[in-house]
């Protein structure tokens, strides 16, 4: 509630400026009897003229941040008219200093210098009038006014510089955020292109199996009807798998310019070989399989393999010395769950901000309706958990 009221108050600049002018208006009101009864001035103000002059000096300051140059010009002209008319200086004339600060803080540097020159000129004119008039004792206050003019101008320049610095920091943060988002999009697109190429190989393999089985069924149709029926069943199952993979392939961007060589893609059986490679690189890995192995399509097997590979690669890069990892592969009725857990640095691991491995893992799991969670563990280490549905009706 307090935060909302503060935001509402900050958004009403005119009200804020009017509130800041209240002390000056109160001081002017309290000094009114002394001004009206001052016998030292040749030109004395009536109560109505004093009230009108105070209002003309104070009211423009309500819009000082909307129209800084105009409001400063207004109060400066009124003060100059006072000097020409010989009217005594009022407390309300302090709005000239407020206008000077506003111009220095919100306008270009040249406008701040111009406002400073006007205020210094006004101080010189007032000093000249006092020194050649009946009040030589006013020299001290005029000197103080000149010092105050310089101090207010310097304060306005400081605030202007600080505001420009903060604005530059905000713009830089926005640019960095935009660049980070662009890098993530580029990494996502590159990973999708890579997935599309790999799935292309999987679909091509399935179609090749269908062609071979169809040829065999054609040759065995008359001599061995049972074998021909078995080949047709294999064609049907492989066709359904290829059709499901093709649907996903159409939903993934593929870089036509990058045509990799067709080669067998790794799957779940190659996880043991992957574990041996990681052990040879210096990371002790324990690979466990639980549950009853279900029939997993080649595309899903490839996605699981790549997720484990990327998680172990991250452990090698960021885990630190004497780090070990455990890979658990659980076969459920509707999904395969993969957990890669290490005891490395975890949240304390250095991050250069250029890695996109987690983005790639999430993209691979999302193709099959799965999900990936990755986070530091309590007490140290890092954990990556992936859930991959193995049947279309089990997709999230």
TrEMBL record:
Residue ranges of every copy of the Histidine kinase/HSP90-like ATPase domain listed in the record: 299-392
Cellular component terms per the entry's GO annotation: membrane
The reaction(s) this protein catalyses: ATP + protein L-histidine = ADP + protein N-phospho-L-histidine
Gene3D superfamilies: 1.20.5.1930, Histidine kinase-like ATPase, C-terminal domain
Gene Ontology molecular function: ATP binding; phosphorelay sensor kinase activity; protein dimerization activity
Residue ranges of coiled coil: 159-193
Catalytic class of the enzyme: transferase
Listed CDD domains: HATPase_UhpB-NarQ-NarX-like (cd16917)
Keyword Coiled coil assigned: yes
Matching InterPro entries: DUF7134, HATPase_C_sf, HATPase_dom, Sensor_HK_TwoCompSys, Sig_transdc_His_kin_sub3_dim/P
Listed EC numbers: 2.7.13.3
Keywords (A to Z) from UniProt: ATP-binding, Coiled coil, Kinase, Membrane, Nucleotide-binding, Phosphoprotein, Transferase, Transmembrane, Transmembrane helix, Two-component regulatory system
Domain of life of the source: Bacteria
Membrane-spanning residues: 14-36, 42-63, 70-91, 103-128, 140-159
SUPFAM superfamilies in the record: ATPase domain of HSP90 chaperone/DNA topoisomerase II/histidine kinase
Name of the molecule in the record: histidine kinase
Organism expressing this protein natively: Actinomadura logoneensis
């Amino acid at each position: 509630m307090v935060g909302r009221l503060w935001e509402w108050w900050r958004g009403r600049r005119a009200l804020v400026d009017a509130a800041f002018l209240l002390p000056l208006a109160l001081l002017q009101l309290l000094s009114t009897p002394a001004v009206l009864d001052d016998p030292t001035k040749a030109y004395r103000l009536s109560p109505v003229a004093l009230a009108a002059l105070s209002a003309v000096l104070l009211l423009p300051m309500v819009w000082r941040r909307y129209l800084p140059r105009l409001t400063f010009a207004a109060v400066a002209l009124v003060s100059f008219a006072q000097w020409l008319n010989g009217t005594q200086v009022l407390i309300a004339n302090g709005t000239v200093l407020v206008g000077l600060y506003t111009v220095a803080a919100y306008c270009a540097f040249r406008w701040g210098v111009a406002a400073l020159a006007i205020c210094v000129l006004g101080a010189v004119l007032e000093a000249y009038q006092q020194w050649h008039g009946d009040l030589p004792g006013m020299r001290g206050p005029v000197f103080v006014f000149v010092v105050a003019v310089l101090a207010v101008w310097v304060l306005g320049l400081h605030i202007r510089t600080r505001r420009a610095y903060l604005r530059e920091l905000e713009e830089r943060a926005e640019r960095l955020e935009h660049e980070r988002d662009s890098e993530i999009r580029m990494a996502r697109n590159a990973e999708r292109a890579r997935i599309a190429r790999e799935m292309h190989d999987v679909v091509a393999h399935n179609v090749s199996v269908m062609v071979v089985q169809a040829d065999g069924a054609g040759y065995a149709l008359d001599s061995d009807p049972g074998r021909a029926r078995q080949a047709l069943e294999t064609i049907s199952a492989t066709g359904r798998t290829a059709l499901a993979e093709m649907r996903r392939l159409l939903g993934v961007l593929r870089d036509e310019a990058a045509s990799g060589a067709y080669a067998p893609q790794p799957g779940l059986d190659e996880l043991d070989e992957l574990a041996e490679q990681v052990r040879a690189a210096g990371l002790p890995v324990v690979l466990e399989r639980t549950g009853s192995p279900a029939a997993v399509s080649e595309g899903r097997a490839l996605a699981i393999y790549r997720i484990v590979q990327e998680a172990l690669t991250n452990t090698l890069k960021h885990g630190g010395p004497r780090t070990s990892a455990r890979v658990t592969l659980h076969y459920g009725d509707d999904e395969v769950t993969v957990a890669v857990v290490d005891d490395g640095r975890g949240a304390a691991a250095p991050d250069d901000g250029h890695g996109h491995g987690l983005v790639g893992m999430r993209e691979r799991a999302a193709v099959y309706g799965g999900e990936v969670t990755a986070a530091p563990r309590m007490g140290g280490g890092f954990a990556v958990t992936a859930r991959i549905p193995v049947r279309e009706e089990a997709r999230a």
